[in-house]
């Protein structure tokens, strides 16, 4: 197995995966490399998401603790690093209670569907050279479309719960979708015009070829995208869809 015998030449994960797929293509059936690439890509995305979510959540809580003159998470694991894991276990072991008047199938389906766009969007993001699950020639359009689809399960959750606060939160989410989608697309349009491609790997290659980052060429577009992104993920102060002080927790109720 060449990809193991010459491990010192595998300078990054992309080379390792490429060598593995090449070996599978030489020693296995034709369908095996395609199946293996999809499995490896899915595992890579899930591992990256889980690790990054744990670290970002821990970092945010520690930072907020400092700002508010308190310690933040510091009990579970070293420096509280495993606090997010403990919280996840606590949430998963809670009793599942469904109200009598909800649309049961839609109510249970919404939380499952809302996580799919967040994972699928990583399929077009290049992690390294050759390390991209789906190198679409319309990658930018795919990201925008998937981001828009994410609002549908949220509305399903609000409507199916038969709760006025949940429905108000879901309606606010749909209204916000119209508000932030246009500036978000316009900010990304500048990137497409600069690089003359909507392929995500092509955008990265353009920056490498010109030895610069587009963040320096379009600082205003970056600011617009940052604000629109904060609205899309319901971060304060644009969290009106789940405002605890007004509508309990919006579509989470």
UniProtKB/TrEMBL annotation:
Keyword Signal: no
PROSITE patterns: COMPLEX1_ND1_1
Residue intervals passing through the bilayer: 31-59, 105-127, 139-162, 174-193, 213-231
Keyword line: Membrane, Transmembrane, Transmembrane helix
GO biological process: aerobic respiration
Gene Ontology molecular-function annotations: NADH dehydrogenase activity
Entry's localization field: Membrane
Record membrane topology: Multi-pass membrane protein
UniProt cross-references to InterPro entries, sorted A to Z: NADH_UbQ_OxRdtase_su1/FPO, NADH_UbQ_OxRdtase_su1_CS
GO CC terms: membrane
PANTHER family with a match to the protein in the record: NADH DEHYDROGENASE SUBUNIT 1, NADH-UBIQUINONE OXIDOREDUCTASE CHAIN 1
Protein name listed in UniProt: NADH-quinone oxidoreductase subunit H
Species this protein is from: marine sediment metagenome
């Amino acid at each position: 197995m060449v990809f193991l015998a010459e491990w010192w030449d595998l300078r990054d994960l992309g080379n390792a995966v490429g060598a593995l797929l090449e070996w599978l293509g030489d020693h296995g059936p034709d369908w095996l490399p395609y199946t293996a690439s999809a499995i490896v890509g899915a595992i890579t995305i899930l591992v990256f998401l889980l690790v990054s979510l744990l670290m970002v959540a821990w970092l945010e809580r520690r930072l907020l603790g400092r700002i508010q003159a308190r310690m933040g998470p510091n009990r579970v694991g070293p420096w509280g690093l495993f606090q997010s894991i403990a919280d996840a276990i606590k949430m998963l072991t809670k009793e599942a209670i469904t109200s009598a008047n909800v649309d049961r199938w839609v109510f249970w389906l919404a939380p499952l569907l809302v996580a799919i766009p967040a994972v699928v969007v990583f399929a077009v993001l290049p992690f390294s050279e050759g390390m991209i699950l789906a190198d679409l020639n319309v990658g930018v359009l795919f990201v925008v479309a998937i981001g828009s689809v994410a609002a549908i399960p949220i509305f399903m959750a609000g409507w199916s719960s038969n709760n006025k606060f949940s429905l108000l939160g879901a309606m606010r989410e749909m209204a916000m979708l119209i508000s932030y989608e246009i500036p978000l697309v316009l900010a990304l349009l500048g990137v497409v015009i600069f690089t003359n491609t909507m392929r995500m790997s092509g955008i990265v290659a353009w920056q490498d070829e010109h030895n610069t980052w587009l963040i320096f060429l379009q600082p205003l577009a970056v600011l617009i995208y940052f604000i629109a992104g904060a609205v899309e993920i319901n971060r304060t102060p644009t969290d009106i869809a789940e405002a605890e002080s007004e509508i309990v927790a919006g579509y989470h109720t």
